Amino acid sequence: FLSEDSKLRFDTCQLLWQQMKSEAEELQEELNKNLFDKLIEFLEKSHLEFRKKSTNWNYQIKSREIPTAALVLGVNVTDHDLTFKGLTAMLRDTITPYVVSLQAKECPDVKHLLQKLASQVMGCHIDMESTEEEEEECVQLSQKKMHYSMAFLSTWYRNVTQKGSESVNKKITSSSQWKKSPPIVIILKDIESFSTKVLQDFIIISSQYLHQLPIVLVLGIATSPIIIHRLLPHAVSFLCIELLQSLSCKEHLAKLLDKLLLTTRFPFKLNEKALQVLINIFLYHDFSVQNFIKGLQLAILEHFYSQPLSILCCDLPEVKRRIHSLSEDQCESIRRLPSFMRYVEKQTPEKQVASLTNERFLKGRMERKSLSLHIYHENFFIVLKCLHAFTSSLPKYPLGRQIRELYCACLEKNIWESQEYEPALQLLRMLAKDELMAILHKCVEVFRSSPGKQLGSTAEKLKEFLAQFQSLEESNEEENGSGSQQKGLQKTDLYHLQKSLLEMKELRSSNKKQTKFEVQRDKVVDMIDNLVRKYLFPPDTQTLYEVVYFTGAHTLREHLNAAPRIALHTALNNPYHYLKVGNEFLGNDSIPNVAPDICIAYKLHLECSRLINVVDWSEAFATVVTAAEETDPNSTASEEIKEIIHARFIRAVSELELLGFIKPTKQKTDHVARLTWGGC
């Protein structure tokens, strides 16, 4: 039974996650659209003569080359399934019903590959027509285990396309050029895992039937396009390859962070340590954006489960409504928040008493602080993106190349107190005019795309600086033009050139006055510095930040960074940690008889040396199990109990062997070898 507060938290969590999940899916579709559009364009060019039934000699020569789209998707292999799933759905809706997906584990040889190919192609045909008679016929064919071949498939394809039935292509929504002879698209998901011999034989066989079957290959590549030449040294000449590159996983992650975390649309946020855990798993384990999203989902669940005040982690209008309906216990929980206690300590004595005793006064203060937290986030993200625009192109990237690095640094502490901040400002004071104007254009675009209106005057100042730099550029062009006309009358030999350069050098060393551009550039850098010091405070300085920020980095690390060896040792040494029953043997060095059999056998094996005598081990196990029992050793019941205990011991030893703690040995009879040391 859930209380009203728990149900509200659950509903809020579910709504928030659905919104963030939808945003992530829309981003995925948007990023895939460019790749899919290029693939459709490639398909439109391929088999053009096949559809026209061309007899051109050049076509006859090229008809042995299979149109091949090489999709370089990156090393984040766990994300490829989602991409191929969307690609398959798009192709079936717009191009052809005959889309086949093959994996290396399903195709150990050419026979299995052709069987899988034919069954999927014919299965697609059955799905499109969806008649009971043909479904039964397909089942009968599969039961007979027919010998599939490219000749069989080409005959079947010719019979199907000659019917002229619109039911085969009723779901194709693109132009009619695909209606008569829709291509057969074969997707090889993990080309690096395929056997070289299987792939080469299949490609050579397929190239012989291109005049009968409009085959198109789509190769999923995780590493580099050069793998095609390494895998297919003799068959690459039968491929007409088009290289298509997807967005890198790091750029995808940057866009995802911008959509989900660097925005005020979603109130939920991660503190520096929790975000760093997810980023480290992404960078050092799998580069998987989908796994990053799952980690974010886990953080949301843990936050709403462990933080009772997470009911206020919602949109600003809803926050105001929920604040007025807070119970007395919830108000007391707010008073115990560290950030709220710091806020109360800074108030006058009268307001301190009112905050701690008057619920109405407390709710009014909370409403103001919730609004302040929302405004803080709006200003924080705008200034953060502007600072990143200035520092992301500096030499050696003192504040980080990616915005996630700068964001983590700002979450941890005051960024202007870091050692890298002052050197970054010095480099900014050396920017050229073109670079500075390009950065200012980016900052103006950031202000234009942000929903907040708090920094409107700053946006106007940036536009003024741009106008001033533009006027300086025009005046410099006029001066350079007039100067070039005057200097055109002078001699330009080497002597006069060296003399003029020396004069200019002496003039610069004697006159240290800044130019107009340098003065304006320093003003821009000073303005950015003031914005950083005013708005980029860490979030833990804000009142009520605990409501929206998840701080359980240890929980994320514990769930996402698997440590099976430690988990096994904990489970076998202290089963109460997971079972939550039998706490009588918690933290006890002795071996209780109520523990599970495998735990008893495990603790006994820890007391042994490298070789364990199974007979002694069995007797010790029986002694522990029967420690609290008083039975007559000569009775029939006692013999039955011994047999049961012996069977339990054999099962426990088998389980330990399966887990890798022991192994059989031939060094001594009735002995096993121990494989682990150090208590784990």
UniProtKB/TrEMBL annotation:
One of its GO terms (biological process) is DNA replication. Keywords: DNA replication, DNA-binding, Nucleus, Phosphoprotein. CDD domains: Orc3. One of its GO terms (molecular function) is DNA binding. InterPro entries: ORC3, ORC3_ins, ORC3_N, ORC_WH_C. It is found in: Nucleus. Residues 565-677 form the Origin recognition complex subunit 3 winged helix C-terminal domain. Residues 323-554 form the Origin recognition complex subunit 3 insertion domain. Residues 4-312 form the Origin recognition complex subunit 3 N-terminal domain. One of its GO terms (cellular component) is nuclear origin of replication recognition complex. It comes from the Eukaryota. Component of ORC, a complex composed of at least 6 subunits: ORC1, ORC2, ORC3, ORC4, ORC5 and ORC6. ORC is regulated in a cell-cycle dependent manner. It is sequentially assembled at the exit from anaphase of mitosis and disassembled as cells enter S phase. Component of the origin recognition complex (ORC) that binds origins of replication. DNA-binding is ATP-dependent. The specific DNA sequences that define origins of replication have not been identified yet. ORC is required to assemble the pre-replication complex necessary to initiate DNA replication. Binds histone H3 and H4 trimethylation marks H3K9me3, H3K27me3 and H4K20me3. PANTHER family: ORIGIN RECOGNITION COMPLEX SUBUNIT 3. Belongs to the ORC3 family. This is Origin recognition complex subunit 3.
